[in-house]
Structure to design on (762 residues):
């Protein structure tokens, strides 16, 4: 792969991604920056911090309070202690939702990372029109989940669906996809991976373009082939992007909701694809069990929090900051 | 949940729906701005409904007529699709800012009434000496509580009957369905009308279409027609695992997998109603589909639902109008609710063809001849029973229907037959349902 300077289209935003976690090292900040600019720091961070406190931390805290009650949204909440949490442990529908979500995460996250890294490598070229091609891969992200759901509904339709027509043309037995409890989750995963491809690819692309050309030149001089250059130069240097993409993918995978809601909610046509967030929605807004739904939110929050903490701790072993 | 089941049809119309909602919001804003300049005696109330643009237009016409007769009250209509309607309502109620008057589905009524957000209209009824007997009993009953409260008036009724495609019957030289039809006849004719000309195993024309995803569409009627029931007479436990009830559900499973006159639910889950698309010769479903089928250009007739071993039963489910307990204008709200059930409003409602009027004068009068088949709907009230309605219905239904969807109606894990028979599934789920009911 011959390296050329990054095209203007992306303007090397790789530094942004690479900047994550910089605080651990000596960093590039000169001694005067923090001290004299403290007011500016406060000025710029203030709105975000206030927003986080008011719109995220407060509701999260309130949800914990609610999770200790029996509350139907309208009549006065009744304190029940940890009862909601203990009930969750024996709620087979919740456990099924948790199982489905875990399966979804375990498959979709690695698959998404591998595919988007591959795509980023393929797109890390410079020729006329590359910016358009890159943009094309980003389109799913700015398209509404409902519109995407409708298109995929057509792709997966058991009769006359695009995918089945394709299979039949190849002489393969058509499948019922979403309607089949076995295929439903893989079908949802395929949509999500496709939909998330753009975000991860952009980050990887930025990471790739942050790798100095001299390293590749040096490796080539040492006789490294394509694979060795990828394995020993590219991969270590884009670990910050990999780390960042991984964490985003992990968190959003646990929150899978819209594809399920549009395409495969219970009754459309089976109960096989219920996920934790769908379960929370259903209990809170259909069954009026706000306390119970909040408890499940906290369980989900806990799971995601623990996994994120483990993931963060692991970074010193495999993430290399330049 | 019946309305959500036609979602595929609704989704296709969604841009218009969005536009309608946007218009409604605009009207609300414009109205709020205009309200300030009108006379202080003018009361404004908000009326929320679920539905599509046609239903909004129909309800708007009723509201306009109400304005003409009651210049001191302004009613703003807001419409949402079925799913967002309930989410918005919940949010509004929780925030103490719900619409003054809103539409209520019969089975969901107890969940709201028991949470003390609805106004008891009994004092208003007594004060006005309003005669409830002018309305169909089945409609009134769903909004009456055990202690004699009346927390709403019915607005319309929905029943289930048999639609048939005249062209397909003519092509097969078969007589149209009538009131002599029973289960056996449905299957017999259904087989003749299921046509797989190219022999690929998936018919180009199905004998029957229905929705399996809610009890109201068909299987509730089948349970009754087989001598079973969903709820015990005291309404505190479910008896849906009785051999009679299971037999009714089994008949529906057999229509798919044994008689093969009905497609399995996956076939039309994305594209919607096969009858509307001209892909099925008959459909057992609700009276609300008439405008949809007309719009689709189907030349159809309506016959009574076929009878079963224990007789002919269909389900009736009223939509009501209820008043928010914290409404600032309960008097105006009551006048409007009363108006919705009046002969004048009900005649306008009738013209939409989407529901049966609840006012007896209209129901037993002009309605029967308002379109071909209306008489069948009106007559069916004689053998119609109310869809179950009790606190916790939504969750109960989710558990029960989830079991049936996954294990009885859908193709199972072997890719050929369903996982369980109706009896197995209902016996499996009943202890869980009764546990749920007991915990409430």
């Amino acid at each position: 792969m011959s390296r050329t300077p990054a095209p203007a289209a992306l303007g090397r935003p790789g530094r942004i991604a690479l900047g994550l976690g910089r605080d651990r090292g000596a960093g590039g900040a000169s001694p005067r920056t923090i001290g004299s600019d403290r007011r500016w720091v406060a000025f710029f961070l203030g709105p975000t911090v206030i927003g986080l406190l008011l719109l995220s931390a407060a509701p999260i805290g309130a949800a914990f309070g609610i999770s200790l009650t029996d509350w139907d949204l309208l009549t006065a909440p009744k304190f029940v202690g940890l009862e909601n949490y203990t009930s969750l442990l024996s709620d087979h529908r919740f456990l099924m939702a948790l199982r489905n979500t875990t399966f979804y995460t375990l498959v979709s996250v690695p698959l998404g990372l591998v595919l988007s890294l591959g795509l980023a490598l393929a797109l890390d070229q410079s020729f006329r029109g590359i910016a358009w091609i890159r943009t094309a891969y980003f389109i799913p992200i700015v398209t509404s989940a409902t519109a995407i759901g409708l298109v995929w509904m057509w792709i997966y339709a058991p009769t006359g669906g695009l995918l089945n027509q394709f299979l039949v043309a190849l002489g393969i037995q058509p499948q019922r996809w979403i309607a089949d409890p076995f295929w439903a989750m893989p079908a949802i995963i395929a949509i999500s991976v496709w939909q998330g491809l753009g975000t991860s690819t952009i980050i990887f692309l930025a990471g790739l373009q942050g790798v100095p050309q001299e390293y590749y030149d040096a490796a080539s001089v040492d006789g490294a082939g394509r694979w060795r250059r990828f394995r020993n130069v590219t991969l270590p240097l884009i670990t910050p992007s990999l780390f960042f993409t991984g964490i985003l993918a992990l968190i959003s995978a646990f929150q899978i909701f819209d594809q399920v809601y549009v395409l495969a909610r219970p009754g459309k046509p089976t109960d096989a694809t219920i996920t934790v967030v769908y379960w929370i929605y259903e209990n809170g807004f259909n069954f009026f069990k706000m306390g119970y739904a909040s408890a499940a939110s906290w369980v989900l929050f806990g799971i995601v929090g623990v996994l994120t903490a483990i993931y963060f701790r692991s970074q010193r072993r495999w993430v290399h900051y330049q | 949940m019946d309305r959500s089941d036609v979602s595929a049809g609704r989704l296709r119309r969604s841009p218009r729906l969005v536009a309608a909602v946007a218009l409604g919001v605009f009207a609300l804003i414009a109205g709020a701005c205009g309200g300030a300049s009108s006379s202080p005696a003018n009361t404004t109330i908000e009326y929320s409904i679920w539905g599509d643009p046609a239903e909004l237009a129909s309800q708007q016409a009723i509201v306009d007529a109400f304005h003409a007769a009651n210049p001191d009250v302004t009613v703003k209509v807001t419409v949402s699709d079925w799913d967002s309607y309930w989410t918005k309502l919940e949010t509004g109620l929780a925030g103490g800012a719900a619409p003054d008057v809103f539409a209520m589905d019969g089975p969901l009524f107890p969940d709201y009434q028991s949470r003390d957000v609805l106004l008891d209209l009994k004092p208003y009824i007594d004060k006005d000496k309003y005669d409830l007997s002018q309305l169909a009993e089945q409609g009134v009953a769903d909004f009456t509580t055990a202690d004699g409260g009346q927390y709403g008036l019915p607005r319309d009724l929905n029943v289930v009957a048999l639609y048939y495609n005249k062209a397909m019957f003519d092509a097969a030289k078969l007589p149209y369905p009538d009131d002599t039809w029973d289960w056996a006849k449905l299957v017999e004719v259904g087989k003749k009308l299921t046509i797989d000309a190219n022999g690929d195993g998936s018919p180009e024309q199905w004998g029957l279409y229905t929705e399996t995803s809610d009890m109201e569409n068909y299987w509730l009627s089948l349970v009754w027609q087989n001598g079973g029931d969903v709820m015990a007479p005291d309404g505190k436990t479910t008896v849906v695992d009785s051999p009679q009830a299971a037999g009714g559900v089994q008949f529906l499973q057999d229509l798919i997998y044994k008689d093969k006159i009905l497609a399995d639910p996956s076939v039309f889950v994305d594209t919607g109603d096969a009858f509307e698309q001209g892909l099925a010769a008959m459909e057992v479903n609700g009276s609300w589909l008439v405008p949809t089928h007309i719009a689709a250009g189907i030349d159809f007739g309506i016959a009574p639902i076929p009878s079963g071993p224990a007789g002919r039963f269909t389900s009736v489910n009223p939509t009501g109008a209820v008043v928010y307990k914290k409404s600032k204008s309960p008097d105006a709200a009551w006048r409007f609710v009363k108006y919705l059930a009046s002969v004048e409003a009900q005649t306008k409602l009738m013209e939409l063809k989407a529901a049966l009027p609840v006012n007896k004068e209209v129901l037993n009068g002009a309605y029967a001849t308002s379109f071909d088949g209306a008489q069948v709907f009106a007559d069916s009230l004689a053998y119609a029973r109310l869809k179950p309605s009790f606190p916790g219905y939504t969750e109960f239904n989710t558990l029960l229907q989830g079991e049936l969807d996954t294990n009885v109606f859908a193709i199972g894990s072997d890719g050929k037959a369903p996982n369980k028979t109706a009896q197995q599934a209902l016996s499996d789920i009943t202890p869980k349902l009764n546990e749920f009911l007991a915990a409430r």
Remarks:
- Confidence is low (pLDDT under 50) at residues 1-29 of chain A.
- The interface with chain B takes residues 72-75, 93, 150, 153-154, 156-161, 176, 178-182, 266-272, 282, 285-288 of chain A (CB under 8 Å).
- Residues 81-318 of chain A form a domain with the MetI-like fold fold (CATH 1.10.3720.10).
